[in-house]
Structures are given as structure tokens and as C-alpha cells.
Write a structure and sequence with these properties.
The protein has 241 residues and is of the alpha+beta class. The chain has seven helices and ten strands.
Length: 241
């Protein structure tokens, strides 16, 4: 990446003045605060992540996935590991790189899951290519390099939005917002948002109403029941939230 781009684009593989500027602006991430997260980006060659939200920029010393886990625990959102197993069991949402989802927003990982960039699909303005690099621009103006092509990111975003819409449908069980996943999403009129509108998983629900929630609650019960039977002394009772 040339020097001019280093001043405008975040690269999670290379330290730059832009990283220093964002790190100076960032305050400590408190998982108890109410944040809609736009993206989580690991710091290159250093410990921790920057969390970009609607309210500002935050720094956390933990990995991307542990940051999400702490946030989920603080707000009683679905456990990522349990939800991932449910989504894989359903079979229509892929078998790897499962999205993280709560009733208010969703995130999907770009590489692996533990310590990678996580992006909010509804906050992506566009994904473009310049030379050998692929760039993502968020609706808040943040620009970052990404390790995947636009079509791959679109597929991962489509899955995240489909799961998010299903979770929201379950949450609004008694006040239906519509008959298709699109009705449960706030899609911006951006190049990326317009592409998402056309994706097949967002045209009709592939799960029945309350199916994701029902399967999650059952899997959650079995998960903690197994822990209770195997090693009751070491079980974290705070997890029963």
C-alpha cells in the first residue's frame, strides 16, 4: 500500500499513522454499554482490537471473538458457539464462518472467527478493487483493506442478514413486520446495500417462524446440562442469563 493510502485506509496487516490516530481517539471498550457495532478490526502486530460503533471508537485488549463474547454475555445475547452449532445444523446458512447475531444487529467474520475483521453487513457502503487490493468502505466513512473479493463478502453478508432477519422475526413473533427477510432489515441505498437486496436468501425465509429461537434454546439447555452433569463444580452459573 502506498503512503497516500496509508493515511486513508486501515490495513489490519500493517501499522500506519491512521492506526495511531484512531488509537488516540479510542476509549476503553465497556461491554455493558449499548453499542451498535459497525466493525471490529484487530490491531496489526499488537494486542487487541478497535471497535467502531455508532457512538465512537473503542479499544479492547481481547481478541475479536472474545470481545463479542463479553458483549453477548453482558447483554444476554445468544452465545456465539451455541448459535453457530444451531445454524450449521439447520444447514441453509453454511457450515463455517458463522455470523454473530443479536436482535439488533449482526456481524460476520472475514477470515476464521477468532481474531479477524468482523463487519456489520448493513453498514457496508461498497467493496471495490484497486490493483491487487480489495477495499471496503463503511457508511460512516471508514475505509479498510479486506482479504476477500467483493462477491465472497457479499455472500457472507447475505448469510448474516438472513440469520439476522430470522432472529428478528422470532423476536417480533407477536408483531410481524413483514413476510420476507428484507422487511426486517434496514438497508441503505448504497451500492452494497442495493446488491444485498437482490440476494436469494433475503427474498423469503428459509426457516419457520420461531425455528431459530426454538432450536437455540434447546441447544443452549443441552449445552449447560452436559456441563452440569460432567463437572458441576466448575460450571459458571452466571452463564444462565
Amino acid at each position: 500500500m502506498n503512503e497516500e493510502n496509508q493515511l486513508k485506509v486501515l490495513d489490519d496487516r500493517q501499522w500506519s499513522q491512521l492506526w495511531e490516530r484512531y488509537l488516540e481517539e479510542a476509549i476503553a471498550f465497556d461491554p455493558l454499554d449499548n453499542h451498535e457495532i459497525n466493525c471490529i478490526i484487530p490491531l496489526p502486530e499488537r494486542k487487541g482490537v478497535l471497535v467502531f460503533t455508532e457512538e465512537g471508537i473503542f479499544y479492547n485488549t481481547r481478541s475479536s471473538l472474545n470481545t463479542l463474547r463479553k458483549f453477548s454475555f453482558a447483554h444476554c445475547f445468544p452465545d456465539y458457539g451455541i448459535l453457530s452449532s444451531v445454524l450449521k445444523d439447520i444447514g441453509s446458512f453454511g457450515k463455517y464462518k458463522s455470523p454473530w447475531v443479536c436482535p439488533f444487529f449482526a456481524l460476520f467474520p472475514l477470515e476464521g472467527v477468532r481474531h479477524t475483521v468482523w463487519m456489520n453487513p448493513l453498514k457496508i457502503k461498497d467493496v471495490s478493487t484497486s490493483g491487487n487490493l480489495v477495499y471496503a468502505e463503511m457508511v460512516d466513512g471508514l475505509k479498510l483493506t479486506v482479504p476477500s473479493q467483493r462477491y465472497t463478502i457479499l455472500l457472507r453478508a447475505e448469510i448474516a442478514c438472513a440469520v439476522y432477519a430470522a432472529v428478528r422475526q422470532d423476536s417480533f413473533y407477536y408483531s410481524t413486520l413483514g413476510n420476507s427477510p428484507i422487511d426486517y432489515l434496514k438497508l441503505y441505498r448504497t451500492p452494497f446495500g442495493n446488491s444485498l437486496r437482490k440476494r436469494p436468501l433475503l427474498q423469503q425465509f428459509i426457516t419457520k417462524t420461531n425455528e431459530v429461537n426454538r432450536r437455540y434454546q434447546r441447544a443452549r439447555f443441552l449445552h449447560y446440562f452436559d456441563e452440569l452433569v460432567d463437572d458441576p463444580e466448575s460450571m459458571s452459573w452466571e452463564s444462565w442469563n
